[in-house]
Amino acid sequence: MTVLTDLTVAQIRDGVRDGAFSAREVAEAFNAAVAGAKALNAYIVETPDHALAAADAADKARGEGALKPLSGVPIGMKDLFATAGVQTTAASHMLEGFVPPYDATVAAKLFEAGAGMLGKLNLDQFAMGSSNETSYFGNVVSPWRRNDGGNAALAPGGSSGGSSAAIAARLCPAATGTDTGGSIRQPAAFTGISGIKPTYGRCSRWGIVAFASSLDQAGPMARDVRDCAILLETMSGFDPKDATSLDLPVPNWEKLLSADLTGKKIGIPKEYRVEGMPAEIEALWEKGIALVKDAGAEVVSVSLPHTSYALATYYIIAPAEASSNLARYDGVRYGLRDLPDGANLQDMYAATRAEGFGPEVKRRILIGTYVLSAGYYDAYYTKAQRVRALIARDFEQAFEQCDLLLTPTAPSAAFALGEKNADPLAMYLNDVFTVPASLAGLPAMSVPAGLDEKGLPLGLQIIGRPLDEQGVLDAGLAIEQRAGFAARPEQWW
């Protein structure tokens, strides 16, 4: 008997179309799975009625021969996307209780394509974090456990940790994510799923709570590469409400998928072999090289000489933009207002921001405000923008020698919750392999390719030229098919 929550997006779409099961049966199965997984804390808000309404519409549309691309497919929505009539918090006390009267463009596109929503997924507060431990609504717990007898609760990655945990635990077949410095790819690697950050501008940012505007980009997360292609087609496209949106046609990525890499050159950036890289990450990378060779690709060594400056550059630019974006949360226009007795306007600003923001958000606002301040702007922010240009030029020169780049996604498997809380720099190092592509605005994807010695998933990252999502997806499919990753967490929740 088919377990409906084990099905992929493509299998659900096709099964509803062929009448193998009804969309309502699918929605009810996932609603029950969500309701029974409180221990993971993946969802901040559950919306079973939304999923059922979309399912009933899909079943009616099937009878009328008018199915849409995602009819019958329920998804999870990262709680960074505005959803009409449903609380949108960015996992922050600052926005607790905020109910937008509109949908983010990406959410609207998914709903118009027939998708239902199972709920709003937990994340690091304002998408700031690499472990999903900064949410005001509590930590998300990874469904994975180490096989060494340890019972420590593990991080699902961040900031899209609610999305990754929910997909890995079969609480939704796919979900939206956002990626500023690796927030789709790193959690995908930690939980054994796939996720793609498209070229900056492919997906509208309108209606997404802003973190760092020149870096933020929406993308899909799912169990496999095909599902990512299906969702990305729906999420992409020009939006006149977003000044950075690309006015370009959206390719049919799913139809064009090919795992044959004959004629492709895959670059291996030598600077990504960082000092102290764990042997199992090195071994995974070598395995990935063998897999793309088996798919017909030629492997070449390339250089990205400014890679070592990427993380420092990112942690100047991203906090600078965050300090500017988050200035709007002052108790006047959005969400929380703390107005102590006898307080003046300045007192209200201070009290609201002190109570509304968590420690990590405050840390980044302070860093950002400092690097933008008079006297330090040129020394830090202007210099970081110059280095960002050099990093982008590195990629341009590398792509003169190859079509795609292959790297590990993260420097380790998932770590235990609380393990790195005391050292923000150690936490920031989780993004060491993902940040450079974000600074350059390039499409990049993580696919699961193996397990570490404790049975936890490890991911490989493919980076492509601007707008070459097809090349990235094809290489991801080639690795996925040859790696044969089929591991899944045992249900303990």
Shape type: globular
Estimated structural class:
alpha/beta
What portion of residues belong to β-strands? 5-15%
Number of helices: 15
Order of helices and strands: HHEHEHEHEHEEHEHEHHHHEHHEEH
Radius of gyration: 21 Å
Low-confidence stretches: none
Largest pleated sheet? 8 strands, mixed
Major sheet: arrangement of strands = 4-6-5-10-11-9-7-8
Question: Could you characterize what this model shows?
Answer:
It contains 15 helices and 11 strands. It has 493 residues and is an alpha/beta fold. It has an 8-stranded mixed sheet, with helices on both faces. It has a 3-stranded mixed sheet with strand order 1-3-2, sandwiched between helices. Helix 8 crosses helix 15. The longest helix is centred in the last third of the chain and has 22 residues. The two termini are 23 Å apart.
What's the gist of this structure?
The protein is of the alpha/beta class and 493 residues long. It is built from 15 helices and eleven strands.
Layout: helices, strands, pairs:
Elements: H1 9-18, H2 23-35, E1 43-46, H3 48-64, E2 74-78, H4 105-112, E3 116-121, H5 161-168, E4 174-179, H6 185-191, E5 194-197, E6 217-222, H7 225-235, E7 265-269, H8 279-294, E8 298-302, H9 310-325, H10 345-356, H11 359-371, H12 377-398, E9 404-408, H13 424-428, H14 435-440, E10 444-451, E11 457-464, H15 469-483
Parallel strand pairs: 2-3, 7-8, 7-9
Antiparallel strand pairs: 1-3, 4-6, 5-6, 5-10, 9-11, 10-11
